[in-house]
Specification:
Helix content: 25-40%
Number of domains: 1
GO biological process, one term: protein lipoylation
Number of strands: 7
Largest sheet: 4 strands, mixed
Structural class: alpha/beta
Pathway: Protein modification; protein lipoylation via endogenous pathway; protein N(6)-(lipoyl)lysine from octanoyl-[acyl-carrier-protein]: step 1/2
CATH architecture: 2-Layer Sandwich
Pfam families: LplA-B_cat
Strand content: 25-35%
Shape: globular
Order of helices and strands: EHEHEEEEHHEH
Keywords: Acyltransferase, Transferase
CATH topology: BirA Bifunctional Protein, domain 2
Number of helices: 5
InterPro entries: aa-tRNA-synth_II/BPL/LPL, BPL_LPL_catalytic, Octanoyltransferase
Amino acid sequence: MERLVKVWQVGRISYANGLKLQRYLANLHNKDGHLSDTILCVEHPPVYTIGIRTKLYGEAEETKLKSKATTSSATGIWINDKKICAIGIHGSRYITTHGFALNCDNDLTWFDHIVPCGIRDKGVTSLSKELCRAVTIEEVLPHMLDSFSEVFNCNCMSFPKEEADKILETLDI
């Protein structure tokens, strides 16, 4: 039997509210397990973020962790030496939240002020820049969901409006 995944097309909201919503849904899932797997489709105004470490490790623990960890300068999705999609994952209490930021038709000049993802000597691109035409999120989303369904052997359905409205009201978003 295929798994059911709810797709919530939230639209454009602040980064903080998107994070608040993601955390709330992960909490619901962790609390009683009644929440189906959910994809949040969110767009937000440009924002600079930094990683956070929620636990301080002793020198021995950190050395042990570093000896087991590997990194790659090619994390994400690349077109030649230009990153088009960043990928992130977070795990807590047996629940994982994943995210990716696909550059569709955004203003790439924001990346001129930072070292994107801490990777020097690489660029950033978008679908619009690579295809030399405007490529909107609305155009990309159905293809992304079809691919997601195929790769993860699941059925995607729209997040029920009544349920979404109730959650947004609870969070005051």
